[in-house]
Amino acid sequence: MKRNANRILVTHVGSLPRPHDLLDMMKVRLTGGPIDEAKYQARVTGAVAEIVRQQAEAGIDIVCDGETSKAGFFTYAKQRLGGLAPKEGVKFELYKTEHDAFPEYYDEYFKKAMMGGTVVPPKPLFAVGPITYTGQEELKRDLANLRKAVDAVKVTGAFVPSTAPSGVGRNEYYKSDEEFFYAVAAAMRTEYAAIIEAGFDLQVDDPFLSDIFGDPKLDAKQRAKKADMYVGSINHGLKGLPEERIRFHTCYGINHGPRVYEPQLRDVIRHIYKIKAGIYSFEAANARHEHDYHVFETHKLPEGKAIMPGVITHAINIVEHPELIAEWLVRFAKLVGRDNVIAGADCGFSSQACYHTEVHPRIIWTKFRALAEGARLASKQLWAKKKPKAKAKKKAA
Hints:
The protein is an alpha/beta fold. The protein has one domain (20-382): TIM Barrel, CATH 3.20.20.210. It has 13 helices and nine strands. It has helices spanning 20-30, 37-58, 76-80, 96-101, 103-114, 136-151, 177-197, 207-211, 220-238, 265-272, 295-298, 322-336, 361-382, and strands spanning 62-63, 81-86, 125-133, 157-163, 170-171, 201-205, 246-249, 279-282, 306-309. Strand 8, helix 11 and strand 9 (306-309) form a beta-alpha-beta unit. Helix 1 (20-30) runs antiparallel to helix 2, helix 2 packs across helix 6 and helix 12 crosses helix 13 (361-382). The relative contact order is 0.16.
């Protein structure tokens, strides 16, 4: 994983809007309707090539496939793991404290935006048998599509997002939650290792690690214990894999909302640092978390690690000014070192495959161009050559 090339490199978190014609085909396929599989796979391949090209043209150095083939963060586990099944009548209960504080807003939000526009309504999954990895063919196609697309453009590198054990579902089979999470990690290791073996960087996505620290049902000791279990399971899945090829991403789950009751980076940073990854990605660009940079004044970045702060956000349609992005990046660089900063985004822009993304697609690409320009401006400051001091003229004797 290249961290810099005498400049701050530019990347993002992963998910991007899928083309509507592909969403139409995906919906038919996922609901068991008649589909020409060869035609569907050809459309996925074409869509990946298109989205990688757009990233390269926008100035993204480390690209991905936009999670184009995936139906969504919540649904994707069912496509890749055996031993999981939904329950009739059970729905997601998301961000309860936030919802209870602003029920009128969140009732409408979940209905119309976050869940309402998905190609297939996501359902919570439960372990009903031994967890096994069954997604080899889907994964193989994803990696081949990304390789073909990346080879056709000029970029620094590419990454593939993959879910952490906590993003898979709930336990109703194993003796304990810990046993369940470690079983999921063992199964997901197949995917983690394959991504790295294919020559890509692995990004492990775990918004639920941060979510622990906003759970009102847990006291401080219980939160720490649960977070340690999440971290332990992630590290179990990553065992033996090269840390320098791994990035870990966490966020706070909600896209657009008041977000008053979500935790702060200071609450979770100690646990993030325990994860066996080379780069840590987190939200930093939205108004609830812009102050989180202060964490690095007291919690020094471990040796050999780097950070990927979000300096554009999925939480608003306003395009961040490149000069502000540059200020943010320079601020982080002064705290952790310029070689240890990569410019990123707060989160993905379409974590579920939706017809309607909360940030308009054209605005997303404008944000990416602003991100690239902001990184260029920051690099110009951080790698500016110092002018040699003029030698004082000797006085005549």
